[in-house]
Amino acid sequence: MHFLNEIIIAGIILALFGPKVLQSIAHGLGKGVGQAKQVKDKVMKDETVAEFAQMKEALSKVPLTPQQASKQAFQMVIGADKPVETPEKEAPVQSPPVIEG
């Protein structure tokens, strides 16, 4: 039943776009995949395993959240050698008491 659904969808797409457009899309996708393989091969040839390990280590230091980025920026500004510890959950901000009069 799945195969029949895929055949029907392919027929509808063929009817909407026509064979020439689908052929050019497939040709473009094929060229893109070929270029991606060439780039991958070039990078793998130029870079050693040790360089990839260094890249991985450097990427692990990139902050993923705004909180991590601000924490890292703060450490750079104060020149801290050891990381600043912050609590996991911050205390809720209390509003001042309301005086009714």
Automatic annotation (TrEMBL):
Superkingdom: Bacteria
One GO process term, biological-process aspect: protein transport
Keywords of this entry: Membrane, Protein transport, Translocation, Transmembrane, Transmembrane helix, Transport
InterPro entries linked: TatA/B/E
Topology in the lipid bilayer: Single-pass membrane protein
Protein name stated in the entry: Sec-independent protein translocase protein TatA
Pfam family, one: TatA_B_E
Compartments (UniProt record): Membrane
GO cellular component: membrane
The organism of origin for this protein: Tengunoibacter tsumagoiensis
